[in-house]
Records
---
Amino acid sequence: MAERLTAEARRQALGGIPGWTDIQGRDAIGKTFVFKDFNEAFGFMTRAALVAEKMDHHPEWRNVYKTVEVMLSTHDAGGVTRLDIELATAMNAIAKVTS
Ligand code: HBI
């Protein structure tokens, strides 16, 4: 099972995934993606869902029209693990986030 990242490892990892931040009050990371429209937002969710399924590691997310709020944490580990960093990285790639 993936181990919880130390605060330092998590800080380092966050530096490599633009737009992702610590969630206050939870051992989780989060990001809000805003797309052109609902179609783009749902297309993102569809592709991200396939990656999550392949990883057997699933997001907590909320979609309102063109916005997708994502929160990642590894429940089994009680906090943020490399799986969350991996899925966040994949999500940025899907959304074509570069900076
Ligand atoms: N997704 N984010 C997240 N965190 C988990 O702990 C997790 C999951 N997806 C599936 C999963 N765990 C199962 O493998 C375990 O609950 C058995």
Note: The chain has three helices and four strands.
---
Amino acid sequence: EKGGYDHFMLKEIFEQPQTIFDSLRGRLDAEHQHITLSGVDKIKEKLIHANRVIIVACGTSWHAGLLAEYVIEELCRINVEVEYASEFRYRNPIITDKDVIIAVSQSGETADTLVAIENAKKQGATIFGLVNVVGSSIARMSDAGAYTHAGPEIGVASTKAFTAQLALLYLIALKVAYEKQTIDQTLFNKLLGDLAKVPQYVQDILEEQDAAIQEIARKYADANDFLYLGRGFNFPIALEGALKLKEVSYIHAEGYPAAEMKHGPIALVDENLPVVFVATKDSYHEKIVSNIQEIKARKGQVIAVVSQGDNVVAGLADDVMVVPQIHEIIAPILSVVPLQLLSYYIGINRGLDVDKPRNLAKSVTVE
Ligand code: F6R
């Protein structure tokens, strides 16, 4: 049932070209520049006139939500808040009937997320569920929604559910932007076209980078700490990279916005600290290059996710994981894939049960 793979986690990482494709299928029509999402249509007016979009989630799903904040604000010009469900439910948040809550959950059963939307619903908010498991509690509680079509995710560390969430969140943002007319046709077409290329590009990364990433994993498997840095659209990916490493390797890892390192974490940097930069070509590129130089000046070891053809970062970094170049808004869905593989192989090198890390449950149905 692992389909020839040693672990579910690896199988699920390699399924991503298909699961992303399945999540876009019948929804994204790049050729005719059209997005079909009946769940969005159902609450279209609410979304277009929303006072705020509040994204509620936990863990990896929260990271997907954080990226969605950047994307929805950029494309739709709607205020977005991203909330840890556990915090949101226990404070007394100000919610009105002009708020749309997007609950992001693979399992659809996460207790904190479920109660958070239950409370928000009582206060009049409209609930949109972005869920993988069909018929789950969060799906049933929602006023409208869209299923990610990632298929069953068995590995406790979430991989394919995350990229499916991103694919759907991009579609939602693009559709709302189009309806609200906050995006011009050229950018809309470009992003649709790039999104359609993602399954093939993920396939290319898996085929072309797997061997190199195994080597990198061997080199760094004994490290005690990792720092993950990224800016802008890549910041949520730095957080997700760090979480994945913690879960499956038990190595302490922290994700930070790259510019924040000066405000504390840079004190950790010495020749024993691997620093992973999510450094694909984007509008912040020069800034991240100078952040990399600052780490190198302090003898930190730099592992970078770079865009194909980027000799500047490749020249500075000790090790690179290469991804195809694509629009900066879409790039994070590619950047996360090498980080998933890196975590997996480091966990394997350390002889751990990557599919069932200690202390973790696949779905957290108690608080
Ligand atoms: C991380 C992981 C967890 C889940 C979190 C939310 O790899 O699996 O952090 O993302 O427990 O779960 P769902 O998405 O099922 O609500």
Note: Residues 58-61, 105-107, 110, 113, 157-158, 243, 247, 363-364 surround fructose -6-phosphate (CB under 6 Å).
---
Amino acid sequence: RPRVLSGIQPTADSFHLGNYLGAVRNWVALQETHDAFYCVVDLHAITAGHDPVVLRRRTRVAAAQLLAVGLDPERCTLFVQSQVPEHAQLAWVLDCLTGFGEASRMTQFKDKSAKQGAERASVGLFVYPILQAADILLYQADAVPVGEDQRQHLELTRDLAQRFNNLFGATFTVPEAYIVRDTAKITDLQDPSIKMSKSASSPAGIIELLDEPAKSAKKIKSAVTDTGREIYYDPEQKPGLSNLLTIYCALTGRAIDELVEAYAGKGYGDLKKDLAEVLTEFARPIRERTHLYLDDPAQLDKVLAAGGERARAVASTTLRTVYDRIGFLAPA
Ligand code: TYM
């Protein structure tokens, strides 16, 4: 089976709809066809200052949500990044192969460091994409299911894999991004020119998977739509409406054309009302199951520890080869 790896940061108390539709939903599908590794990337979550109590809680909330949306620890390897020390170890090696200018060109780093101020932004934020490359390359992943915003980091990962292979001999699989076009960029409900994002979206612009269903329904109903009244898909002219149609299709499995036909002669309000219901029916069981997993943190930790052990078996094999190829002495 081909292998996939992906990760998600535990930096919020809930996944948002962009995380789910852009990435996590595909993770669930891929566990059926691929040898799948998924990690909660807590090392990535400490680049901008954090509270230890909050981080620990959010790491469990992230894992519980992944189980609640359908990841099955029998079918995939679900683990927490910091429990596999090889991630940080390989990252150092890759840091040394990355140009300073190359890392400086990462747009996510540029955006975030501009926001925080160059003096305050951490070196961890700077090397963030290189740690991400280590996550992927350790597992020899063939494909990496992510949203559009991760494309540049994937390119860097491919470059680093090729560079290492050229310098030290074929070691890493060069991974492909696995980006599903329709849902690759879910936009903010209040500002369809930006992606839905935990850092940039206003509370009204973002749907949190674990929110009160009534609250999410309200956000859908007050989403910004476009002038005109006719319902059709046109991301250029009608970005707000098209985003709602994308969400509607993704949550129901219905085709755009079918929806457009069903809403012929109806208004935006009708569509929003129905979508609000679709969304709350979708989110309700996820919310319930997440809370069930969180009610038993000892069991949850056990599942993660078992995943971590499986992950480590793969990661340590790759790291051993890497250390050998670059000329480190064999461990005592
Ligand atoms: P993170 O935690 O920001 O987001 C998790 C996943 O959600 C996707 N995503 C979106 N997709 C569509 N529309 C949106 N509005 C939207 N917002 C977020 C992201 O593309 C991502 O796939 N750097 C990564 C985490 C990471 C990782 C890895 C990913 C660390 N190591 C190794 C893949 C492989 C990140 O910050 O994701």
Note: The chain has twelve helices and five strands.
